[in-house]
Amino acid sequence: MKTATDNETLKTIFERRAVRQYLSDIPDDDILEKVIEAGRMAPSAMNRQPWRFYIATHKDTISAFSKAIAKVASKAMLKNAVKHPLETIKTLVHFTSGPVHLDSEDNIFHGAPVVIFITAARDNEWAGLDIGMCAQNMMLAAKSLGLDTCPVGFAKYIGKTPVYHKLGIPPAEEVQLAVILGYGDEKPEPHPRIKNNAIFIDRMECC
User: In terms of Cα–Cα distance, which of 90, 94, 76, 116 is closest to 20?
Assistant: First the structure.
């Protein structure tokens, strides 16, 4: 009997991991374009294709973005901790695979050589769903091309930093998410998956 990993698409899905350690090598432009093109192929509400991609590849630029975001994110988490302490603890646990040091060299983008900020119009109520599907396409495409990735929700805080203008994002847009990518320098084990969350509401019984 064939398993899920006998299918190339499913194999890519099952092998994708959120990687937080990278080699310094920058992928070739043609590979990056294929990853972005995969994002463009994602479905979107009423086919609006709301995404735009702002790409950073210079180490100093990425480091400056990371440090600025970490400062804003730390303040936001401290503020949130007063109202939602348990939620904040969970966020900190997932903030990094190691000890949390918001003032470290690059604790937001984890030393990845490429950061892709994905934006959409501020007044698009479906943007979050659309960008999520777009990012997943990109991450799976990257995996199939020998790259590793990680979605970075904290990237949305870039809009509240003094370095935001460097992205050149028009006022009508906002960052929804960033995807970091490169050649991974770690091989994380898969996290356990919840199995009892599929509920059939009208499943027919076999005779």
Answer: 94
pLDDT tens-digit map of 148-171? 999 999 999 999 999 999 999 999
Residue 194 has which token pair? 């919840």
What average pLDDT does this structure show over 55-74?
A: 95
Question: Structural domains in the chain?
Answer: 17-29+52-124+144-182 (3.40.109.10)
Assign 97 a pLDDT band (cuts: 50, 70, 90).
very low
pLDDT on residue 103: 44
What does the alpha-carbon distance between residue 114 and residue 149 come to, in Å, rounded to a whole number?
10
Distances (CA, A) of 63 to 12, 49, 57, 108: 30, 30, 10, 9
**Could you give the CA distance from residue 15 to residue 9 in angstroms, rounded to a whole number?**
10
Is the per-residue pLDDT at 202 higher than 80? yes
Say what the pLDDT of residue 102 is.
Answer: 47
* Number of other residues whose CB lies within 10 A of the CB of residue 15: 13
Sign of torsion over alpha carbons 58, 166, 36, 180: positive
Helices 127-144, 8-15: axis angle to 10 degrees equals: 100
Under DSSP, the state recorded for 46 is G
At residue 136's C-alpha, the angle toward residues 177 and 30, to 5°, is 90
